[in-house]
Amino acid sequence: MNLIDLILVEDDPMVMEVNEGFIKRIGGFRICGKARTGKKALEIIRNLRPRLVILDIYLPDLNGIQILKEIRQLGIPTDIILITAAQDVATVQAGLRFGVVDYIIKPFKYERIHTALNNYYSYAEQLQNRWEINQEDLDRLIKIHPHQDTLANRSREELPKGLREITLQQVYNFLKETPIGLSAEEVAEGVGLARVTARRYLEYLEKMDRVLLETQYGAVGRPINKYKIVL
Description:
Blueprint: E1 4-9, H1 13-26, E2 29-35, H2 38-48, E3 52-55, H3 64-74, E4 79-84, H4 89-97, E5 102-105, H5 110-127, H6 135-144, H7 165-176, H8 184-191, H9 195-207, E6 211-216, E7 224-229
Parallel strand pairs: 1-2, 1-3, 3-4, 4-5
Antiparallel strand pairs: 6-7
Helix pairs in contact: 2-3, 7-9, 8-9
Domain Response regulatory: 5-121
Keywords: Activator, Cytoplasm, DNA-binding, Phosphoprotein, Transcription, Transcription regulation, Two-component regulatory system
Subcellular location: Cytoplasm
């Protein structure tokens, strides 16, 4: 498969440089344009019509959601990955409603964007040079597509009282980045939550069958509960 054309939109030059390094390290993508403002981003997207745009929300002129809406209104066949510090549920839901393929919250680790781009590359590869698709292949593609792995698109009514979609997604993403099981204390420290709060999210994820609970016994002391992503 040929390299996938990608445009990077980020107003912070240091973050731009870091993201560019990550993308080059992952491979499979060609950065065909960069923009530090919303207006410049729209100009480049209109002219180049890339397959993928990595888009920040907080830009000096236009909001990233405004850019996303404009792209959709223009009918440009471009997919969007949002990488942003915006964590409020309204913004997350707006991004999902306008069809972003992934939503990555800053700060993030290399493994998170690596997973996002690998998933997207697999998704694009499966659709290449196809005119039709059957149900079996479509079901498999939907599982590959990174958007389908976003827990934040679940309705608020499904969550127990006191739990938030965005925090649930953060806990789940943190577990995904670690191949070994983690305790509630380790998750709490990694995500920035109280231990009792982290345990509530982990117990909910276990109830959803998204994580496995493993009890580990040491030589002395109490057993430790470890949570691991279900593969």
